[in-house]
Amino acid sequence: MTNRLIIAVSKGRILTETLPLLAQAGVVPTESPETSRKLIFDTSVPGVQLLVIRATDVPTFVDNGAADLGVAGKDVLIEYGGDGLYEPLDLRIACCRMALAAPEGFVLDGSRIRVATKYVRIAAAYFAARGIQADFVKLYGSMELAPLVGLADCIVDLVDTGNTLRANGLAELEEIMPISSRLIVNKASMKMKHEQVRGLIDRLSAGVFAE
Ligand code: AMP
Fold first, then answer.
1. Ligand 1 and 65: CB distance under 6 A
2. pTM, whole model, 2 decimals?
């Protein structure tokens, strides 16, 4: 076993907000993952590499040991499910909320509803806990469109500023849960590369709590 350590991160807001935390922990990619089309990057630390992949693939890579660590949104982690990953640190980045939203004037009156969402597991648990009968339409993006074209009565989606909802005539009915990105660790890596992994967790954690 080499002392190679692979960290999986997704492009976009998570990458942008993870890079300064990694830099504080002494890990700096040798070229910018934000502009390069490469998918794997060497860093200032010999043996430590960064993978840039799709957000929903981060838990898969880490669970299967293709990456030792990863950064993933709590939304993605809940939808991925299972108990194969350690989640030792809330990085407090890419913060937003999972929310129920519907066209202005919509009321939950107890009748069966149709919900468009990418987050079927979170949405199903939410409606089940409230005893509301719901059918789900799984979408991979542009959920806001669904109520406007009759595909669903309401949506469950991530909301940050609320601008996307407002621009599409939707209003937030309820926050389902706050969301932030978490550091995840492969269980075998935590054992086999304990010193290296623990050191990185501690340095990242010092950066998070220094904020
Ligand atoms: P906003 O218009 O600022 O409320 O942002 C909402 C849009 O951005 C929705 O389409 C969300 O899916 C997406 N979004 C907001 N925050 C995040 C996040 N932390 N991770 C992934 N997508 C997000």
1. no
2. 0.95
